[in-house]
Amino acid sequence: GQQVMQIPQYQHVQEGEDFTTYCNSSTTLSNIQWYKQRPGGHPVFLIQLVKSGEVKKQKRLTFQFGEAKKNSSLHITATQTTDVGTYFCAGPRYGNKLVFGAGTILRVKS
Amino acid sequence: DAGVIQSPRHEVTEMGQEVTLRCKPISGHNSLFWYRQTMMRGLELLIYFNNNVPIDDSGMPEDRFSAKMPNASFSTLKIQPSEPRDSAVYFCASSFGQGGSYEQYFGPGTRLTVT
What we know:
Helix content of chain A: under 10%
Shape of chain B: globular
Number of strands of chain B: 11
Radius of gyration of chain A: 13 Å
Strand content of chain B: over 45%
Oligomer: heterodimer
Largest interface: A-B, 23 and 20 residues
Structural class of chain A: mainly beta
Helix content of chain B: under 10%
Order of helices and strands of chain A: EEEEEEEEEEE
Largest sheet of chain B: 7 strands, mixed
Order of helices and strands of chain B: EEEEEEEEEEE
Distance between the termini of chain B: 36 Å
């Protein structure tokens, strides 16, 4: 079935280092969404990408959607302790259900 | 807006008991989703409603689980009888628009422990 795979599963970085998480789908996606879940919290919507090759920025966060609309990435420049949490990508399945990746857990050492 | 409201926030119950989780979506949103999150299985969609009608319940694990949405501002997820393997965080989310093309707003979740 349609899956959304996310890597790495876990990353531990020194504060100030960059961080990237990758999302891959077995099929073309109409859009991809990114969410962040702080420890003990709930997923919070970050952004949605719709166009092939789209790049969007939110301060230190850069989101990309692949040309084939099968992959996406989230890059954080110069991580801070406030960036800790789990980052999920999610894509629609059969049109109307969001399928979430397993998430990448980010830990930041200060 | 108050956001998605869920109750209770924590529930501890004994195996065999009935558990009812409640959700109030954001006013004006017409889609509502119930998710379950565990370390082993991640974030799983259980069921989703559009305009109060269940659209897809293929994620509901078994007959012990049922969900209702009697009106646009209220939904329940019931587990009867509960089992220890049902222990998880249950999230309700809502969106404006149907399904996978719209951002979803999650509630704070209900942490369920079945002993």
